[in-house]
Amino acid sequence: MTRGRRTGALLAGLGLGIILAGCAEDPIPVPPLPPDLRVVPPPTSVPHENAKFSGRWVGKWDDALDHVLVIEIEIQSDQATEVIAVYSWGVSGALGVGFPGWTRVRGRIEDGALRLELPRVQARAVYTMQSDGTLVGEYWRGDKITSRARLARVPREGP
Question: For residue 135, which of 150, 119, 121 has the smallest C-alpha distance?
Answer without folding.
Answer: 150
